[in-house]
Design goal:
flat, mainly alpha, 5 helices, two-stranded antiparallel ribbon
Length: 102
């Protein structure tokens, strides 16, 4: 029963967040600061998610093959590689490090 309460509360919370976004006046959304924050927020959230998934294992910090894959992807991005090549570099390096026992 507790699971269904959690699911219902989550659904209501998501609906409330969506409704709150629709009720914001258009004038507020046109402000330069709000536009800049709206543009930067997804990037910050994606970076935080990437860091958490790469360097965390439960409640501990780890430095393993995922970090090597992230570094390879960063190098590919700096070299302006196409997105699929960035992903492929991360996958190949991560798999290679794990295969070598790292």
């Amino acid at each position: 029963m507790n699971t269904w309460i959690a699911i219902g509360a989550t659904a209501l919370g998501c609906y409330a967040a969506k409704l709150a976004g629709l009720l914001v006046p258009a004038g507020v959304l046109e402000r330069p600061l709000v536009r800049r924050l709206a543009a930067l927020l997804p990037v910050a959230l994606l970076a935080a998610l990437t860091a958490q998934q790469t360097f965390a294992d439960g409640h501990t910090l780890v430095l393993d093959a995922r970090a090597a894959g992230l570094a390879a992807a960063a190098v590919a991005v700096v070299l302006r590689a196409p997105f699929l090549l960035v992903v492929a570099a991360a996958v190949v390096v991560t798999a290679g490090v794990r295969a070598l026992g790292g």
